[in-house]
Amino acid sequence: MASASLQFFAFILALFGVFGDIAATLLPNWKVNADVGSNIITAITQMQGLWMDCTWYSTGMFSCTLKYSILSLPIYIQAARTTMVLSCILSAFGICITTVGMKCTRLGGDTDSKNNACFVGGICFILAGIFGLVPTCWYTREIISNFLDQTIPESSKHEPGAAVYTGFISAGFLLIAGVIFCSSCFKRQQGAWIYPPKQHHFPSTEQESNAGYSLKDYV
User: Fold this and answer.
1) CA within 20 to 30 Å of 172's CA: 42, 83, 89, 104, which one?
2) Mainly resides where (predicted)?
3) How far is CA 33 from the centre of its chain?
4) Which of 118, 86, 84 is nearest to 6 (CA)?
């Protein structure tokens, strides 16, 4: 029962990780630049994401521009696009596979098949967490290095946006869920290896006949 509840907790974490992963991939605020002019009325907020750049004005207007050209983008944005999409796909596969392999469901067949399904789903979650963690770290590094560069003007410097923090948290949820699923299955398999089932050996009839020989043959 404890293992089933632990798997259910990991499944909830994985759901939050999947939704956060998808939201971080689509949100346009990976880096944010607030430009406050001489008047607060002219204040604007520029946001840049993986797929579009948006500008929000203090008057309430909001406009976005899609990034159509892939080759013109920096290499870290291209890598972030690829890895985040892979993270979303792997986490979705992990949700489907662990739904079949969880102990609280009636899918997946016997116990060994469900354990294998949970293990494969946990591997998918771990890979999804790694693929989600790499682009967020790389993107944050680029933002911080540009912010600390003295040659770049202040108007061109940015700070990490909400999408970066969402990506970090989602990757952490996916990693934790994957480790829980894999460790729960591994403990059961390890227990079977350490304590194998006892095998009862019964002597054959031939051994019994040899053991019960008569002393008359030697007289």
Assistant:
1) 104
2) other
3) 29
4) 118
- Encoded amino acid at 95, one letter: I
pLDDT digit string (tens) for 94-114? 999 988 888 777 776 777 788
Q: Count how many Cα atoms sit within 13 Å of the Cα of residue 197 in the half-sphere of its side chain.
A: 4
Query: Is residue 162 helix, strand or coil?
Result: helix
Query: Could you tell me if 50 and 84 are in contact, meaning their C-beta atoms sit under 8 angstroms apart?
Result: yes
pLDDT at 133 over 80: yes
Q: Is the pLDDT of residue 174 over 90?
A: yes
User: Looking at the predicted structure, is the pLDDT value of residue 194 above 50?
Assistant: no
Q: Sheet holding 62-66: strands in order across?
A: 62-66, 52-57, 44-48, 31-35, 159-160
pLDDT band at 215 (very low <50, low <70, confident <90, very high): very low
The encoded tokens of residue 41 equal 């009325």
Q: What are the DSSP E strand ranges found in 67-198?
A: 159-160
Query: What residues pair up with 57 in beta bridges, in sequence order?
Result: 44
**Side chain identity, residue 46:** Q
Q: How confident is the model at residue 187 (pLDDT cuts 50, 70, 90)?
A: low
| Contact assessment for residue 87 and residue 132, using Cβ atoms and an 8 Å cutoff | yes
CA atoms within 13 A on the CB side of 161: 23
Four-point Cα dihedral 122, 125, 131, 136, nearest 10: -130
